[in-house]
Amino acid sequence: QASLGFIGGEPKQTKSILALYVALCAVTGPPLFGTFEVPRPLRVLYVQEEDSRRRVKRRLKSLLKGLGQPVPEDMGEYFQVAIRRGVRMDESAWVNRLNQKLAGFPADLVIFDVLANLHSKEENSQPDMSVLMETFRTLRDAHHCAVLIVHHFKKVSGDGGFIRPGQRLRGSSVLAAASENSFYLSSQPDKLIRQE
Length: 196
Description:
single chain; alpha/beta; 7-stranded mixed sheet; 6 helices; globular
């Protein structure tokens, strides 16, 4: 189903690992979090602008082992990656290139990791982020795919009272408003990471 959402959390809270886990469940079929069934293999395009190819391969191998899944022979048919290609969602040339890619590889899910490396705009600017989110929505609608964006939480000073996880996304409130389906990670006193 076409939707737009985030994987949000503080640094080093396994956001990228969660993104790969979601991708592998979509492609290979084990229920997401042991609960959400994937009725058929989905096509996933994974755009990684932070981690190295070696790190991504190592994480994929570990996740597949943990899921008890061999590497599918037709993996390339369902899962494709673009690692450190310099993708910029605020540049029309890159958006056009991505549209061409999705025309040839009709992904059901496109994962972007990480938002800060995908644009050169001001994250706290409502107009800038409104334009950027509209670019992601246009991509979602044109290709009838889900879009999942990995993004960092802002630093919180003091106790500040209760803040909904979406409001902790770094930058303009436009980002939280754009979210339709998201995963938010938070650390707990017991050092565990929980998905909200």
